[in-house]
Sequence to fold (258 residues):
Amino acid sequence: MPLNNQIAIVTGGGQGIGEAISIHLAKQGKDVVVSDINLDSARKTAAKIKSLGCQSLAIKADVSNSRDIEKMVDLTREKFGRIDRLVNNAGIVIVKPIVELEEEEWDRLIDVDLKGVFLCSKMVARIMINQKRGKIINISSSSGKMGTEFFAGYAAAKFGVIGFTQGLAKELARYNILVNAVCPGIIGTKMWEMVDGELGKRLGLAKGRAFQKEIEKIPLSRAGTAEDVARVVAFLASSEAEYMTGQAINVTGGMVMH
Fold:
């Protein structure tokens, strides 16, 4: 699946799934702009990409801030002249019952997990329309297919990402721009370490037990890895996926099957 001579932006690319996506694309020859709210993390990922022989640019950006996204897009165009792929990966999670979720926390979930996808897609789509080509890949979640206890706000945002993906795919198809989503399930990253701790407090479980209980729901009997998600993203970004748009692909080990 050659990706040579293409430019990708990966938001939230400094760690976890975003880092794995960035590095996986670079291993296939793609130059990658690593955007992250933590610039040090973005720089570390960018350094790994450069060690693979690809170009990279680390940019500090909050995806919920339109000025940050304008700057990200402008810097990418200045360095590379175009944008071929956008992976909207940046996201946060808050584990709380809805009756305890503060309005500010709800707003932050929606701003990062849904509004961020809108802002990045809007600004990059303008460039892709002029190019008459491109691909946008949005990272949703199994929570975008199936709401769960203590994740109602997160699920609302991730369901929204899937609806946005479908609508945008129909709008941009005439310009040869494909838009898809990937829905990871239980993935062994630092984010899930935090989720395990929060769930454990709510359910009265020892450290690691909440995570294990979630794994017990998975037919393949293991948590996913960031690389499991990255491989699916790389496929969608490749020339092997030229007749797929508007899809939301589960990467859940069989936990979600639709």
The mean pLDDT is 96. The longest strand covers residues 177-184. The helical segments are 16-27, 39-51, 66-80, 103-131, 152-172, 190-203, 209-215, 226-237. DSSP finds eight helices and seven strands in the chain.
